[in-house]
Amino acid sequence: MSLRSRLCIVAAAGFLAAAAAVTPATAAHDDWDPAGGDGHHQYDPAGGNGDHHGHHGRHLYKGVVTANTLALRSAPNRGSQVIRYAHKGEIVKIFCKTGGETVKGNPLWYLLTDGTWAWGAARYIDNIGPAPRWC
After folding, report:
1. pTM over the 0.85 mark
2. Domain spans of the chain?
3. Is the dihedral of CA 81, 28, 23, 44 positive or negative?
4. Which CATH number does 61-128 carry?
5. Which residues have C-beta within 8 Å of that of residue 21, sequence separation ≥ 6?
6. Looking at the DSSP assignment, which residues form a beta bridge with residue 127?
7. C-beta of residue 103 within 8 angstroms of C-beta of residue 78
């Protein structure tokens, strides 16, 4: 096999590994450790107890939906696909926050983990407890 072929294979494998690392999977209820250390839940994608696999520091935060109906999306902008809807008063689990399309003066979006991974505009989700970490 030529050096060029080997480099192409290595580059493709690296790209796929990076894509897999940043692409959220379906979040099962069993993946959350309610004893995540400091009162927050801790995510363990291996489904374990959160004490191994190098996933320390990935805590869940909570928020409450303030909009009557909030579209939760596939990306942090209003043009992306709607994954599901959340309703006023619903408590949601927040994995992290990031900047995205500004909604009524607020550019932050939260990555929610309630059964599926979806983005919600932070403008319509009030934190319960500390502010979520950055993604």
Report:
1. no
2. 61-128
3. positive
4. 2.30.30.40
5. none
6. 63
7. yes
